[in-house]
Amino acid sequence: MPTSYPSLIIAAALAAWPALPATAAETTTLRRTAGWTTRSLLASPHATQAAAADDRRVYAISNTTVATYDRRTGRQLATATAPGTEHLNSGFMHDGRLFCAHSNYPATPPESDIRVFDPDAGRLEVFHRFADPPGSLVWCVVRDGAWWCCFAGYGLDNGRTVLVEYAPGGFDHERRRFTFPEAVIADWDGMSASGGVFSGCDLLVSHHHFPVLYRLRVPDVGTTLELVEALACPFPGQGFAADPVTGGLVGIDRPHRRIVFAVPER
Fold it and tell me: What is the DSSP letter of 224?
């Protein structure tokens, strides 16, 4: 976070919440290499699904609400929700707005849409509704003008989780679909990929409840994402995003209701 962020707030947040038990950090079956470590924390009762940030604000996302915080002071500025909001999953900053993956999970058949939050207007609205989604939308990002959307399956169907790339300009034309590596699916503990961001040529994907980031790569040939390595990270699953101020990541520690700012260990 910015150096002007009060050190007492960071210290208080660090002291107020105990670390996760060692057993919780070892439940992933994949060997993790050095990845990301905690830089600072911000307590928020809304930090249950995801977090995101821009240069002035931090966003905590719950099932139904987007809460906005001043990233310099840590003060809560506002909350926003909208009728029909059931299960927000993640948030991605694009063109000054926060785009949130939304679904009707755990209801079936799956319904999914993208909701957009304008921090200046303070409104949360439906941006795009998928007519026949291949699962529950858990995260979405824009890369080179194209939307990439991850639709999850759960339980025995979690191997059907797919990452869909749409042609630039909208959602009218699906360009490609990718499934996830078997080793990653086996590590999901019956859940799925709760968050994802592109980092250069790589794709970082989070677990649902384990503190691990899978570094994946879009293949030149084939339709299965390639596992490069599993990385340690301080947030146990859920949605996360890039932090434009630190160059790191911002996620959540849902068990302790806090936003986690992470920076690379290496």
Answer: B
